[in-house]
TrEMBL record, chains A, B:
Keywords: Aminotransferase, Pyridoxal phosphate, Transferase. Its cofactor is pyridoxal 5'-phosphate. Signal peptide: none annotated. InterPro entries: Aminotransferase_I/II_large, Class-I_PLP-dep_aminotransf, PyrdxlP-dep_Trfase, PyrdxlP-dep_Trfase_major, PyrdxlP-dep_Trfase_small. Residues 68-401 form the Aminotransferase class I/classII large domain. PANTHER family: AMINOTRANSFERASE, KYNURENINE_ALPHA-AMINOADIPATE AMINOTRANSFERASE, MITOCHONDRIAL. It comes from the Bacteria. One of its GO terms (molecular function) is transaminase activity. This is PLP-dependent aminotransferase family protein.
Amino acid sequence: MNFLNEVAARFPDAVSLAAGRPYDGFYVADDVERYLRVYRDHLAGTGLSASAIDRTLLQYGRTNGVIGDLIARTLAVDEGIEVPAEAVMVTAGCQEAMIVALRGLCAGPDDVVLAVEPCYVGFTGAARILGIEVVPVPEAADGLDPEAVLRVAREVRASGRRARALYVVPNFANPSGVSMAVAARRRLLEVASEAGLLILEDDPYGLFGLDDEARPTLKALDGAAGGRSVIYLGSFAKSVFPGARVGFLVADQVVVDGAGRRTLLAEELSTVKSMVTVNTSPIAQGVVGGVLVDAEYSLRAANRAKVEFYRRNMRALLAALEHEFGDDEPMTWNTPSGGFFAVLNVPFVADEALVEVSARDYGVLWTPMCFFYGDGGGEGAIRLSCSALEPPRIEEGVRRLGKLVRDLVS
Amino acid sequence: MNFLNEVAARFPDAVSLAAGRPYDGFYVADDVERYLRVYRDHLAGTGLSASAIDRTLLQYGRTNGVIGDLIARTLAVDEGIEVPAEAVMVTAGCQEAMIVALRGLCAGPDDVVLAVEPCYVGFTGAARILGIEVVPVPEAADGLDPEAVLRVAREVRASGRRARALYVVPNFANPSGVSMAVAARRRLLEVASEAGLLILEDDPYGLFGLDDEARPTLKALDGAAGGRSVIYLGSFAKSVFPGARVGFLVADQVVVDGAGRRTLLAEELSTVKSMVTVNTSPIAQGVVGGVLVDAEYSLRAANRAKVEFYRRNMRALLAALEHEFGDDEPMTWNTPSGGFFAVLNVPFVADEALVEVSARDYGVLWTPMCFFYGDGGGEGAIRLSCSALEPPRIEEGVRRLGKLVRDLVS
């Protein structure tokens, strides 16, 4: 992604349909003080003394964090995920949650992890940093196919390696925008049990559906059935703000620790977390904690304005694609039911060189889908983001993209 | 260290000469708002608009952080380290700086890292997480011997492996309390050049000398001689507060990136940093930035009260050891010239089982030195910390330790 940032810096007037960050307009620095104050008042309300609150925010603290209880409560309200506070590890963004989960699960030289392909580069990058092999499972047009997971898991086993986990984004995936149907989610949980896989469920966009349809997380479905096959990876980057760099993982699997005691996997993984960042800044945790308290533990309720904004943007992107390419035979795109991304298929190779041409000569930036494949794939597709702009700029970006496409195809 | 926390929790009345954390009394939660406000005013003073300040604190940001310029300026004032802002990477505590440096330097399967032994467990733990072998270089009573480094580096080379770096804490090391003489520091820089080693210099306690003697960092000595052999690992946990979880590394080595452009190693390492935590919370960076601005870029000046406090504590610890064990023939201890730690040698095996006995029956906790050795060593020594207590508790702790020792020796 450094390449895209660099091209964006060189062509500042280009419309960026590449940037997947949240919209700038939601952020006010005064909120930091406000929510920190809410969190401090909350701690005082639980009976903590002033000096204990000072220590909570400024001293070294518990490796797994101090707002696990608030996060567990929010997950229960918003997602129907019922876990004890001790099952939550607060991390330095969801990125660290991936590092901790990967390192904790893949300890041996034959341990590999499966991942949906195309895949979020943060996940494949985390695995690369740790020297862990990622085996891709191709995503279908209607999301990850559980039978494909089973097939790849068997191939891995037959090759003498051990597939420990599967990474998937069931709602409005980055980069594809695709979601899994509920029946497929249920079948995936069965497949995970059969294949002895844990599922690493990443859900940063789940709040941002185009409609109010309930999209149950894998973690909620599994928990309701008494299962423990899912480690839920959580982000507050879209639902609160990215600058807190606070994420989390939920790992309520019961394990036996080195001293023979039963504990939860999240607590067992604290050994890894302590060696990556010691603990997550309690100041940053306090800001997010204040947001959760202020929202009465419902980010769904607190995010109504953002949900409306991103819905409007996604509808604007899909309408602009229809307007620009609706009469164009070879042009196809998918229609995500929410989130920040859609994929446009093009009848030419969309690579780095073309991004540069597009930014310089056409004034529009986008992301080659081939960036999200490990070993070939996605050459004829581009990812379009609609999160960081307002509708008129999205429409302008798609118009410029139309000109590029027509010049290349004609 | 989990073991010690657990024992401490079970015996809350035990005096902890094990806890190496800074003293609680310095921390006031209101400081967070105050320093954040200073940082925001500073940004406004540089010409940033209100909305740009909002974005700086709350949006995704530059991987290597936003306060590199303030840190570079502070290093110049306090340490005579002259580096451009681009040589500084802000990290989620010094722990992440170790992870990033280790992963960036040791990429091949034959790459190993040398480290002083006894060694801070955060460093050996970081290497373990990454699967990087740590080859110990034994520390002498007067600090790391450069000739020993040269010898070990040659042995490693002869074995077909590649020693990429050496980890060392030149000032008041954790756990030994030992410091390197200036002549040894100069010789270590020569040795590093000869052996093709980078030095990872960790200096969390450098401000806290018992006297005002100048103790030049390896980075400053190297830079003054035009060298680039040192990566400086920085912590604000003791000089500001631990709860920010802000650290940094300084890597001003010139390297050639994938696209053939000359850049600084810190910028090259941003690829690793982005896959560990994306970027360090700009809110936490802002709090630390505010402290640096408020201190007019001298943590040495801003820390006078803390320096006095820790000096008084170290003097109290050494005086208590003299009082308790001065007439006891077999008992010896070292006399650090600053920092948080001293080592007491005892005529028995000091292990986990004995810590538990000591906490339960004698009401005093300490850290077995064997925790800081990879493969045997330190069995007859204990680390005593004097940072978290006030002098009367330190004295009481040493009295209780005296009773344990006499019961075991008689």
